[in-house]
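Why do we care about 3D structure at all? Because function follows from shape, and shape follows, mostly, from sequence. That is the central idea of this module. The next example makes it concrete: a single protein chain, its amino acid sequence, and then its structure expressed as tokens.
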Amino acid sequence: MTRQIVSVVGGKAADDANAATYDSVNPARTAETVAQVRLAGPATFAWACSAAAAAQREWARVPAPVRGRVIASIGRLVEANAETLAHLVTEEIGKPYAEALGEVREIVDTCDFFLGEGRRLYGQTVPSEMPDKSLFTFRTPVGVAAVITAGNFPVAVPSWYLVPALLCGNSVVWKPAEYASASAHALYRLFAAAGLPDGVLNLVFADGAATFAGLAQALGEGTVQKVGFTGSTAVGREIGELCGRHLQSPCLELGGKNPMVVMPDADLDLAVEGALFSGFGTAGQRCTSLGTVLVHRSVHEEFVTRFAGAVAKAAVGDPAGDVLYGPMLDRRFAERYEDYLGWIEPHHTVVTGPVGRITAATPRGGFDGEGGLYYHPVVVDGVRSGDRLFLEETFGPIVGVTSFDRLEEAIELANRPGYGLSSSIYTTDPAAAFRFREGIGAGMVSVNNSTSGAEAHLPFGGNGRSGNGSRQSGQWVLDQFTRWQAMNWDYSGRLQKAQMDVAEIIPDLAFRL
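And the structure:
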């Protein structure tokens, strides 16, 4: 039976009688509807923010270690339901099951890290420049966080926002991607089962236009104090502009054109393995997916030969099986990917065979892609630094290859697109690794590893077109969901003026030995 899903505000179903219905379909078998989703309008989103604001005051009064135990319970609930949740992710967005199970594990890791942060939301006691006076700093919750997430990691990436936000004493309004609604609803139910009070976590299903309008209304009403957004650079700019008008700094995790540099001393088999996983895992639909391989000219031909061979052997197909990747996430991404394929120019060389949709007319081995949004993996050699294929994010299974002569040239090429999320270098020379780290503009650097290898306790985020410098994961995300408050306590019994009533000890600066 097809799931029927509605928004949840204040712990209760929130359905608008005039709401449109969105069908979330299985991209591996597009005739199958996974869930029918009732889409809310702007007023429902703004109402959810008001409900969250009302609930946040009491939630912030719950001692932080107790909030940490709630996070611990969420982790245990997710762990106990891991296989069911992973199967749902596979069914709804076509992510291979092994990869989906790893994504669910990332939620558990995130909870395991942050449950202890409930006892480590430290401030400081600071010495004063005057006697009988003490100075303190405190972390305080920001208030209500409006979190808007993409669907390529429908449960892991939301946890990077939800877990620390809730731990720090904030309430949340979460708007997931429509095409990942069933996965989001399942995750919400696991969070709610951990004992979160009604209204502390609210789930709103809406399209982009309604979400933006509702967010604008909530910001105007003062019911949102932090916005978290994972998605495209174009939409991130609009959200950044909207938040800026309200003097707020959002947490923006946007797109990437992630480079991989292959030096002449690289282990080529290892580099090929990294390029295969980061270029084609999740069908290239990660913000950290490999964009362009920059290969030293001396090993360029050998790398391309090995890479093309590895791609030719890789299995593409039913995500329930042992495959490198399955279908595109949703029809909208398949259509957009068709546009990206149009960026292949006459001076490029496709080294991997067929381009485009896998069909009975253009099968991949014995697989004809019948009924699903399946596409051939594409490796394009001869990409130039002025090509659109080099400069723009391509959300799909396509990787460009170009060559370089010096490391400095590779760093310049890697930075040229203006994104700054993830990067990678394959080398056995420590000096080259550290020069690359110093010169690259990316927020994350891997050495002899793929561009998509973040762990739950490291800062995740990008610069430039990939984000505004905010970071998710690890202790660094606490600065997104808390604000520093300073307090001074004067117990001298008199007014002491800072920088004025300060004791002075006079040195003899003319003294010489």
